[in-house]
Write the structure tokens for this entry.
Amino acid sequence: MVGPLRGIPDTLSVLAAGLRDTGACGLYGTGGCQPAWLPLFRRASRLYVALDRDATDRAIALARSFGTRGRVLIPPEELGPKGDLNDWLRVEANGDPAVFRSALKRALGASPTPWALEIQRLSTDLAPWDLGDHAGVRDLLCELGHQGPLSRDAHFAPSR
């Protein structure tokens, strides 16, 4: 399932790409998803949150609310800081739904978990013994520690 998306144009772009069976749903603004709506997604095995590039922090927070089912889909960097799915269809795919569909399917397969994105954002010069003192890392480690062994171990595995 692709959703939540940042708005109606992004949702229409996904539908124009022929991904109607994804269950794409649009939000009105980045704060548009309410906790009371989370049960509406209970049957989805995977949820991809695709907000504008400048709303990555919000996308991470929203994907976390879906637990291990949540993934963050970030539009290509070439679209600029406010790039979104609609821009991706119009600019990167030159309005060709088939090209967009292909690129979107590849991106969905490579979309990281919100915790993986947080780990990628950590400073590379951060020493392992300083992780507990780093802002936000303690909460991240606690969240990962409460996940099942497969998910937890996948996040703690050394990167290749």
